[in-house]
Amino acid sequence: MATTEKTTEATDALTPEVTTEAVPVRNDDGSARAPARPQATAKYIRVSARKARLIADLIRGSAVRDAQAILAFSTRDAAVPVRKVLESAMANADHNVGLNVRDLYVTHATVDEGPTMKRFQPRAMGRAGKINKRTCHITIGLGPAEDA
């Protein structure tokens, strides 16, 4: 029996102690700065910014789990890239910042216009019709409830 107690004590001594205290983040000059807010950005997404903004407006300010449900059951095609960006922001919050994902809210969800690819389609009598293939940049940031 004494041997088993010693091995458990030895393994306990080798187990690193995990602390959940917030460590202040420092700038290069040593001054304290606010901890990083988890966010994710997807650039050059092939959907128009107007269509993606309609989806981003639905989830802005809501809890992460509610936003996931909204995006999972949305029938719009623009919900797919927005959902991927949300999941990426959740992974960043968990892995990079060490926050509990269940307690987070969508603090900001912005959709900006990206570059437009211009194409032409032949029309009658030698004319050409202009086709704009629009892109957008989607950014989603997460934070605690008081920031939402």
Helix content: 25-40%
Domain count, please report it.
1
- First-to-last CA distance: 55 Å
- CATH architectural group: Alpha-Beta Complex
Spatial extent as radius of gyration: 23 Å
Walk me through this protein's architecture:
With 148 residues, the protein is of the alpha+beta class. The chain has one domain: Ribosomal Protein L22, Chain A (Alpha-Beta Complex), CATH 3.90.470.10. 35% of the residues lie in helices and 27% in strands.
Helix and strand layout, with pairings?
Layout: H1 2-14, E1 25-26, E2 32-33, E3 39-45, H2 49-59, H3 64-72, H4 79-97, E4 105-113, E5 117-122, E6 128-133, E7 136-143
Antiparallel strand pairs: 1-2, 3-7, 4-7, 5-6
Helix pairs in contact: 3-4
How would you concisely characterize the structure shown here?
This protein has a three-stranded antiparallel beta sheet with strand order 3-7-4.
Characteristic key phrases:
two-stranded antiparallel ribbon; Ribosomal Protein L22, Chain A; 35% helix; alpha+beta; elongated
